[in-house]
Amino acid sequence: MQLVVCPGSFDPIHNGHVEVITRAAKLYGSVIVAVAHNAKKTYRFTLEERIAMAEETFALFDDVTVEALPTDMLLADFVRSRGSILMVKGVRNAQDFEYEAPMASMNRHVSGVETVFFAGDPKHNHLSSTIVKEVAGYGGDVRAFVPRAVQRAFAEAQ
């Protein structure tokens, strides 16, 4: 089987992410969940918290590991440094694809790393980390949308 990388900020990881990563593991055999941190962005959860939530979410998966994406390295270089040439990204709609496609082209031209897009399950198409954070921030119930590790993190923050 082949190793693939599923990158993202995962702030927080939600069931749409989990669905795509699980499918990637079944199809390719081995997945690195690369948790990114951009100093120019404001995050709800620290990098360490986001990694811990992803690790707990995939703890029972022998074929899924979680790593921090180094801030001083291009994503494509990270993928190649792990012995892969393939990334998997989930897309919910045409807008997601239009955002991701130019980056995929650049990664392919610069480093030979290919990006495969998985259409997300329609039952998760309304999910985004931003919406989950907003609903939770107003005290809304997000249990149906996020793994238990994220549920606990929100509960502990209140």
Describe the structure in your own words:
This protein is an alpha/beta fold and 158 residues long. The chain has 6 helices and 5 strands. It has one domain: Rossmann fold (3-Layer(aba) Sandwich). It has helices at residues 15-28, 47-57, 75-81, 94-111, 129-137, 148-157, and strands at residues 2-8, 29-35, 64-68, 86-91, 114-119. The protein has a 3-stranded parallel β-sheet. The chain is globular and about 45 Å long. The protein starts with a strand and ends with a helix.
Helicity range:
40-55%
How much beta, percentage-wise? Answer: 15-25%
Q: Spans of 5+ residues with little confidence (pLDDT < 50)?
A: none
Shape: globular
Elements, N to C (H/E): EHEHEHEHEHH
Number of domains: 1
What is the CATH level 1 assignment? Alpha Beta
Tally of helical segments: 6
Derived structural class: alpha/beta
Count all strands and give the number: 5
Strand order of the largest sheet: 1-2-3
Largest sheet: 3 strands, parallel
Radius of gyration (CA) equals 15 Å
Question: What is the CATH topology assignment?
Answer: Rossmann fold
For the terminal residues, how far apart are their CA atoms? Answer: 43 Å
Mean pLDDT: 95
| CATH homology-level superfamily | HUPs
* CATH architecture title: 3-Layer(aba) Sandwich
